[in-house]
Design a protein that fits this description.
With 128 residues, the protein is an alpha+beta fold. The protein has five helices and six strands. Strands 1, 2, 3, 4, 5 and 6 form a six-stranded antiparallel β-sheet that branches.
Length: 128
């Protein structure tokens, strides 16, 4: 259900599944906040999450994430602070992985993640 993980073999997928925890968030809860340090990677398991970036006029929604989509990789791959605030829209279930596990387990998809980071530049331009 997570397209970016389709290149992983069965053993890598089992290792990934064993290394993630599931957490439930009620409507409106903040999962991560723009500008804060990030130590976790998230995959949406159920529900939707909304991504907001600060603008001169407040906050602007720049993306809606649903099942199978992910966020949090930029902070883990670049050590930059979080690039957006992510909030739950309704009940949200996330699969969560910490920094050290992310580096060890997701090595095979690292190039894909880096390439996909280019999409966030488009979101930043939209928020401006």
């Amino acid at each position: 259900r997570v397209p970016i993980l389709s290149s992983l073999n069965e053993l890598e997928l089992m290792t990934l599944a064993d290394s993630m925890t599931e957490e439930k968030f009620d409507h409106g809860m903040v999962i991560c906040r723009e500008g804060e340090p990030g130590d976790e990677f998230y995959i949406v398991s159920e529900g939707t999450a909304e991504c907001y970036q600060r603008t001169e006029g407040g906050e602007k929604m720049v993306a809606i994430l649903s099942s199978g989509q992910y966020f949090g990789e930029i902070a883990l791959m670049t050590s930059k602070p979080r690039q957006a605030t992510v909030k739950s829209n309704g009940t949200l279930k996330l699969l969560i992985m910490d920094r050290s596990t992310f580096a060890r387990v997701l090595g095979p998809v690292n190039d894909i993640l880096k390439r996909n980071m280019e999409n966030y530049k488009k979101f930043s331009a939209m928020a401006s």
